[in-house]
Amino acid sequence: MADFDEGGVYFTEQQFVATNGDDDVALTAPGPQQTIVKFGEFIRNFQEDRTTNIFPYADQLARNKDILRVDLGHLLHPKYGAPDLAHALVDNPTDYLPLFEQAAKAESERIQSRMDGDISSEVPDVQVMLFKSGANGALAQNLSMREIKPEQYVSRLVIVPGIVTSASRPKHKALKVTVQCRTCKDTKTVYCKPGLGGASIPRECQGSLAGQGGRSQCGLDPYEVLADRAMCLDQQVIKLQERPEDVPTGDLPRSMMCLVDRKLCSAVSPGTRVTAVGILSVFQSHDRGSKKGDKSFTVAVRQPYLRIIGFQEDVLNGDTARKPTFSVEEEAAFREFASTPGADEQIFSRIAPQIFGHDDIKKAVACLLFGGARKRMPDGTYRRGDINVLLLGDPSTAKSQFLKFTSKTAPIAVYTSGKGSSAAGLTASVIRDPSSREFYLEGGAMVLADGGVVCIDEFDKMRPEDRVAIHEAMEQQTISIAKAGITTMLRSRTSVLAAANPPSGRYDDMKSASENIDLQSTILSRFDLIFIVKDERSAAKDQMIARHVLEVHRSAGAAGEVDEAEERREEEFLKRYIEYCRTNCSPRLSESASRLLASEYVDLRTEAKRAASAASEDGSDIPAIPITVRQLEAMVRLSESLAKMSLQTVATEAHVRQALELFRTSTMDAVRSGLMDVAVFTDEQRAEIHRVEEQIRRRIAIGAFVSERKLIDELVRVGFGESLVRKAMLFLQANGDFEYRRERRLVHRLK
Hints:
Helix content: 25-40%
Number of helices: 25
Strand content: 15-25%
Mean pLDDT: 76
């Protein structure tokens, strides 16, 4: 019996406190050593299914020596988890998270020694990353930034969803520093506080205090830091902003400063949607507006920040896309809806039901919401699956209403106006941090809408240099930044729905297509569908529109609660169905559909070439909208989106024909719009036009700018007709002698 306890040392830590003033005693949280043992048992023994031989956390440590992602739901499991430790970890994470990491390191050492057989090998420290899967429970609920109350959640574990809008450069934060006295060379190790806290260095030498009976012989502030003996870790500051769908109407989105360290540094980029799990902390803010030395205000002001210890989504594997979850009942309802005949027609009828007519635009908006299939090429590049649509035409034709409906229905959407948007606001900007004076990136609208839709109203009012900035985002779906020493690339996998007006405000059938569509061909070719929306003057149609609008106004406030509930249910069903199709369906073209699309594309190109050759022979203008390979890819995406609406994995010839019909009624009609028909002139008319051209050349010097209205008025006073003057200017522009500037208000002579 002498060696009965040779295998180990056994101990117990019992702490008893009285509760509520009664004589009953309750057991408090276990001590540090017992907590480490319990955490180690959880890592070693937890199984989701006891019938299998799978230990998820032990397997994680076997694969990764320095990372352990732990689900709080597993820790809370009443039978196989440790509920008391889960509650203690949520209530006091600053104390219990280091103990969890110590237990993880001990288990990692045990696993590596069994795998390698070398007990002396050094095992790195393990970083424990917490997340919570499944529905919200009583433990660590999801909180919006508006619900976080400092008096309730400071120093507690919280879960906050949001979008990363900016990220600073990683820095080095000291875990512990070694200081040395300049006089007596006494050394001391000082530990630093976690987060934004620093180290408290003694102002008197501790060695001389011990030797001289409490009196220091080394003076005040004798310690200096030994930089080569400091232990540091990586640390990065990111800015988390509320999701656009969570911001109340009329309010500004709130943001919060967050801190990540070690393996979480550089794991997210601006535009990433994450659900952060972290510790709500505070630090003393420095008011730059207060007087120097005046601490009466700043001493009581604390700035909150979130010390992130894990992300809900697994952003470490390179895929930061939001993965929505669906219940079994929802999936069954979605598949039943997709299998019903005419499912696509039901979807079209649910697109903006308050708008009368415009069936083709509703089909295009539905295709934009569902999107095509994003493809990865063998060389690692991607082909976009998102569809871009441009609505161009008269005012009061419900263009903005389509944009509002899309921004409300799409799972992720950002609405903006072209006049109030700049290139940096749409793409990304480089901002200097006022405290550290360093530059960091802040994503714009197209970065924040990654995986969704960007709705741009008043697209024609944007400055040309701002429109050029979104070229790369619309086709390559990336945004390249090379400013202030920052060279990086952000992802912008978004669809663009834009609305624009002609330069004159209304679409004029007597003008050419290039006059009505005052946009460069480089931006037009990036739109898959271009609709010319005209306010047709027809008594019968006006009567139907008036009845529809008045019926909408009359029944707006008279609808019962049952009807409103049913309408909200249908809107939510459509939104969830779109999200389900975008996540779980990725169709491809069949062989016969590919052959049909190839032959039809050749016919479309031939038609466009015929129009261009006719324009060069008799003086009519070249089509303003080019038909290129991008339009072929647009028809592929349209076919895939139509197949995706019914959850089909293959796009058939029927889908291709439907996509071709939609393309012909939109983009091809826009190509043929305006003065695209062949004009025939007599010899007298040609001679008259040549005389007008000579008068125009006499009045404008090479390189000069003249107002178009002023030029037309002068020639009309001389005796020429206004229509003849406009045709002469049109021919001069087609020949490259003149060009229009500033929304066709100025005429610039080139040669």
